[in-house]
Amino acid sequence: MNQNKTAAKFALTQFASARVQLIAELKKAGYHTLEQCKPIVIEWACDKTGAAFKVNDETGKVSMVSSHAKYNTAKTVVRDVMLMIAGTTRRTSNGSSKTEPAELPRAVQASVKSLVGVVIAAKLTRAEFDALVSQLRASVDFK
Predict the structure, then answer these.
(1) pLDDT, the chain, mean
(2) Residue 34 above 60 pLDDT?
(3) What one-character DSSP code corresponds to residue 54?
(4) CA distances from 138 to 37, 56, 71, 98 (A)
(5) Closest CA relative to residue 81, chosen from 28, 131, 34, 139
(6) Domain residue ranges of the chain, discontinuous segments joined by +
(7) Exposed end of the chain (fewer CB within 10 Å): N or C?
(8) Residue 53 is inside which H or E element, if any?
(9) Whole-model pTM?
């Protein structure tokens, strides 16, 4: 899979307020999942806010420099853009949404019940469960 940072940063600049277009352009640039998008969003946000980021030499993981004066500004931009790409907002991500969750189709309900059984049997910690949900969310590509 070929990823084009220049195209992704252009997409972020052009479409940061238009979710559907942003996602389409990021996919064209080779960024198909939330996991793939986060590093380029961090780089872009740091470029736009004047904050600093670093890349771990061993893992290649991109992260913001928390001691930088513009860190909090960039962190907010990254959070907002990532939430937008995920299809939510600060308001709904922190549980303040008043809407009822959609009912799952019957075919999915059985699979969820089975998965819940597996999770319970595995005795996952909260951190492990959160990692599972995060990986599931990052792995699904809604078209």
Answers:
(1) 83
(2) yes
(3) E
(4) 10, 21, 24, 25
(5) 34
(6) 5-92, 106-139
(7) C
(8) strand 53-55
(9) 0.55
